Amino acid sequence: MAQLMDIQRVEIGPENLTARVRMADGAPLMTSEDLQGTTRVYRLLPHIIEHACLGDAGDTFKACMGNTELAHLLEHVTVELLAQTDIAGDITSGRTFPIEGDPRSFDVEISCKDDVLTVAALLSAVWILDWAYTDGGDPVPDVDATVDGLRNLVASLGDEPGTSYKEKVKGEILADVQREYQEALAMREQEIAQREEEIEVARSEAEAAARERAEERARERARLEEERRRAEEEARAAQEAARQEEERARREQEEAAEAARRAEEDRLFEEVAREAERRTTVLMPDEGRESPEAVQASRDLPDAAVIEWQPKDVAPEPQAEPEADAPAPAAGEKDATATSESAPEPEPEPELEPEPRYAAPWEDEPERPAAPTNAEPLPDAADTSGSEGHIPGPQRVR
C-alpha cells in the first residue's frame, strides 16, 4: 500500500499537539476526488458526521465531508478515535490550517491531554486513511481493536511518563519564564535608574529655576520697596518743604503785619506827641490841678504818653494843728463848738465844667458849651496879666 501522507514534525504544547502533514505527490487533496475512499472512512466511523464543524457548509462535519481537504478528514478521524477511548477527556477538538506557499502541506492541531495517546491516535488515523484511499483491500482496519490498543498502550505506560514529561516541560517553561523575567527586570531597573537620573536632573533644573525666580521676585520686591520708600521720603520732604515755606510765608506776613502795626503806632504816637508838644500842660490856679485841655489831651494820648504827661507830684496840703484844750463850759451854757460841729452847713458841690473834647488836626473844632449867665466876669486883661502866678489857659489852634 502506497504512502498517502507524511507527518513531517510534531509539536507538543501544554494544551495542544500540532502536526505538520504533507500529502504525497499525486495523492488526492480533496475528499471529492475519491468518493469511494471517503465512503470507506464513513463506513468504518459512521459517527464522524456528527462532529461539530464550524465550516462554511454547515454546523456539522456531515455538511462538508464530501468536499473537504484530506488533512481536515485526518483531524476528525483522530478526534473520533480519541473520543472512543473514553480517556481523552470530555471534549476533544481540533483545527486544520493550510501552509502558505505549499498547497500540499497542512498543520493539524488537536487538543492534547495525554501526548502519548494523542500521538498514537494520530498515527492510527493516518493508517486508516492510507487504507481507505488505496483500493481498500484486506486486511480491513478493526476500529474496536485499534481503540483497545490505544487504551492498553496508555495503561502500560502508567502515569510516570506523562508526569515526568509534564514536570520536565514545566521546569523548562519556568526556567524560560525566570530567565525572561530576570532579563525584563534588569532592563526595567536600568530604565528606572535612567529615568530617576533624568528626574533628578529635571528636579535640579526646576529647583534652580525656582530659586532664580524667587531671587528675581525678591529683588523686584526690594526694588519696588526702595522706590516706594524713596517716593514717600520725597513726598515727606516736599510736604515738609511746603510746610516750612508756608510757615516762613506766615511768619513773614505776621512780621510784615507787626511792622505795619508798629509803624502805624509810631506814626500815631509821633502825631500825638507833636500835638502834645503843641499843647502845653497848663496848671490851673488851684495847685496841682490840671486844666481841662490837659485832661482831654492826656485821655487822647496812649498809655505811654499819658504816663509821660502826668503832672509832677504836688506837695500834700498841711493839716491844721488841733487846738489846745479849752476850758469846759459852765453849767447851763451850751458848747458853741459842739453846736457848730453837730450841725455843719452842707457845702455846695462845685460845678464841673464840661471837659473839652480833643479835636484831631483833621477834625473840625468842637463847639464849646455856652458859659452860664451867672458866671463871674473874667478879670481884665491888665489885671490878670499883672496878677502873680496866673497863667493864661491854652488856646486851641487849628
From TrEMBL:
InterPro entries: Cyanophycin_syn_N (IPR044019). Residues 35-129 form the Cyanophycin synthase-like N-terminal domain. Signal peptide: none annotated. Residues 232-292 have a biased composition (Basic and acidic residues). Residues 344-353 have a biased composition (Acidic residues). Residues 232-398 are annotated as: Disordered. It comes from the Bacteria. This is Cyanophycin synthase-like N-terminal domain-containing protein. It comes from Parafannyhessea umbonata. The lineage of its organism: Bacteria, Bacillati, Actinomycetota, Coriobacteriia, Coriobacteriales.
